[in-house]
Amino acid sequence: MDTFDILTLSAKAGYRAVPGNAGERVVVGFLGTGGDMRLSMVLLLMLSLPCACATGTETGPDIGGDATVGDGVSHAPEGPFTVITWNTGTAGGIRVPAEENFGYGPEQEKIADEYYGNGLAWNTAIVAAREFLATASPDLISFQEIFHSDDCADIPEAARAGFVCEDWAHGDPTVARTVLGPDYQIATHGFGRHDKVLAVHNRFGRIVGCDAEFCLDGLDGFPIEGCGRGGRVGRAVIERHSGERITVVSYHGRSGMLQRDFECRTQQVDQIFVDFGDGQPAANGQANIILGDFNTDPGRLQAVDESAARWNDFVGPGKPFQFISKVGEDAPGSYILFDIDHIVSDVFEGTVSYPGISPGTEPVYEGQLFDHIPVIATLTPVAR
Predict the structure, then answer these.
(1) Is beta strand 140-144 parallel, antiparallel or unpaired with respect to 81-87?
(2) pLDDT tens for residues 289-324?
């Protein structure tokens, strides 16, 4: 669960998320006093602001860092492929008893927060994620907040029941491997951000510079001083079996609604489009896909969050990049009232689906646990 979420809005803008039944998301609003009331008013107004961004089309049913990008290889013209971004973090505000929610109640929520970083670690949710992904069968997927199983070594026995660590032993598959199965090459963001993962299906291609099936710290990245630990902007080059290459930027924006959070996210956006840290943009291939949890809503928060406005400097009508995911006042809300989970490209276009929201789809999980909805895109090259 991010701190740019309904808990932050509760403190800063007067919102609190109350998870509902399967497929429901209930939001209760209230106004505070003083500065809280003013910011609350601002964010309430932001919900109705129009967006100048392009919108996607919603439909129903141990190595790395040495890849060469921007090398003149032509973009991949091969046929449709599926891309997913999914923050699998767990929600706050669980109010149902554990016995009514697959064993996951307020006490388990506290444990998830304290020991698992609110990452995907609850066993019944892992099973649901595996079943969903077996059906969706993405060619590329970016996870944010997916628990890294090796961290079980540091979790006490009292905090393991019902979680992936309950029966964990050294050498067991990671949660990412468990939900994806054996047919994916998996790499984590660098500098210890192992809860952020990019995976590519073997039928689609391979990560250049990642010579194993699992590459810890396998994505290129440059930490930003003063903006938290590790690499939140990760880059890989995917080489398809035809030899075509796609540069993929996996991104998990800094969370929070303070001025410093806005500034850090703006710096992260600049890493993607201006200078990654090596003098070139992270998205500097001939064909680029950017996906992840932006932790801001470029279609609704551009007037109060400079990082949201910064996205719109590079993405939208007349710009080199376009949103494939939905943005603007009619976007479905991948995260409660906001759309902070996105897929962007310069050479691909496509349709998007939001499980449990788009017509003909079902929620990923029947219980109360996830606070983000996956964004699924079917992509094809833009006609030139």
Answers:
(1) parallel
(2) 999 999 999 999 999 999 999 999 999 999 999 999
